[in-house]
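Hi Prof. W.,

I finally got the MarR family transcriptional regulator prediction working! I wasn't sure whether to trim anything, so I left the full sequence exactly as given:
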Amino acid sequence: MEYMQQSKNNLKPQDVVILLKIIALGEKSWFHHTIAQELGISQSEVSQSLNRSKYAGLIDDARKKVNKLAFTEFLLHGVAYAFPQQPGAIVRGVLTAHSAEPLNQIINSSEKYVWPYAKGNERGQAIEPLYSTVVEATSNDKELYELLTMVDAIRVGRIREKEIAKKELEKRILNA
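And this is what came out:
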């Protein structure tokens, strides 16, 4: 029974997306249903996600304020191991990792990485997003998009790309 309880509390990729969304909102107030609607995730999944994040110490007991230090530490040192990704086939999609802003302003690369998306207007190696609704959820949220692309750079990048993404991500989260 204890094992079942433990696995129920293990983080899932959408937990990272939800916490990044809360950070992207900054000082704006939010509710479970608004997060759910904006991310295309069910309200019950948002609630379960916040419970897992609370268990992991990534959000406060009221499940409203992200523990930025702990979350940043997880992103910088754990996300690539917890949710690894390898570039796939060349597909149409939306730019991510070092191919997207803000990292494409710093890193010059001929390789392009994209989230697969039929309506996308770029071609590159497929990177599976942390959650299936990410492409639509970021279409109207530049801040969330940039945070997620930096997380992808940590998940798939080479050492230099990872280090640049880590510095930029840390700066944005801790100063948000």
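The chain has two domains: 2-82, 90-174. Does that look reasonable to you?

Thanks,
D.
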